[in-house]
């Protein structure tokens, strides 16, 4: 007997990719549980499935930077902040922060299939009663239109969004004169693709030739810092909340096109903010 739940929850993280570098990711999470029926005629109460699975993801990979430690150019060491991760391929990066902000796997690359398989096995170490197997599936949201991935951190956030390198895969809607503008959506999604969104106030150093930026801040979870090529960064005059991202993009598009613009900026799956300028 199997019990399934589609779109049980979603995970927002960032991933280090050997080809693309730092990328945001948002996955829908589906689950199937096999086992035996109890006297109540149920395998597992639906009301208990979601919090049981979700809590384990929330306490694990969600809102972390997921790093394949055997990818080319990766080195990891202890540091006063907790962990220091350095990369040389496909570009130089250094990120420091508390250990709970990172998920490390001894793999050459991160894939949703490998993550789902590993986490399914981990959850079966202490399964619920009557459950014989757990199968998770991580799936990208199906997006008809423009989408982009980004990474950021919110130092004033009370929860795990304060981690300096977590991210999202998001839709982008650009609306002018009451109509979505597909060409503009694609242009700005391409400009934002695989970027790091940084608040200007968090920049603490930059290269003499303007070729790199270092951002750093202290938050409730600890001290964080991140050094990236400047070309990978998009600088906002405000914090990088989705509300501010929407307002910033509306301003950028309106300025570039000379037309009043409404932006619907998503933050991962099925949530976001709207701003109009």
Which residues form runs of ≥5 with pLDDT under 50? none
Global morphology = globular
Strand runs, count: 18
Query: In percent, how helical is the residue content?
Result: 10-25%
The rounded distance between the terminal residues' Cα atoms is 54 Å
Mean pLDDT: 96
The quaternary structure here is: single chain
What's the total helix number? Answer: 4
**Biggest sheet: strands, sense, closure?**
7 strands, mixed
Helix and strand string, N-terminal first?
EEHEEEEEHEEEEHEEEEEHEE
The value of Rg in angstroms is 20 Å
Strand content: 35-45%
**Computed structural class:** alpha+beta
Structure in words:
- The structure is a single chain.
- The protein has helices spanning 46-58, 112-123, 182-192, 242-257; strands at residues 2-17, 21-35, 65-68, 74-79, 82-87, 93-97, 102-105, 131-140, 147-152, 166-176, 179-180, 195-199, 203-206, 212-219, 222-229, 233-236, 262-266, 272-276.
- A hairpin with a 2-residue loop joins β10 and β11 (179-180).
- It has 277 residues and is α+β, with helices and mostly antiparallel strands.
- Strands 9, 10, 11, 12, 16, 17 and 18 form a seven-stranded mixed β-sheet that branches.
- The protein contains four helices and 18 strands.
- The chain starts with a strand and ends with a strand.
Short description:
The chain has four helices and 18 strands.
Q: Which helices and strands, and how do they pair?
A:
Blueprint lengths: L1 E16 L3 E15 L10 H13 L6 E4 L5 E6 L2 E6 L5 E5 L4 E4 L6 H12 L7 E10 L6 E6 L13 E11 L2 E2 L1 H11 L2 E5 L3 E4 L5 E8 L2 E8 L3 E4 L5 H16 L4 E5 L5 E5 L1
Parallel strand pairs: 1-3, 3-7, 9-12, 12-16
Antiparallel strand pairs: 1-2, 2-8, 4-5, 5-6, 6-15, 9-10, 10-11, 10-17, 13-14, 14-15, 17-18
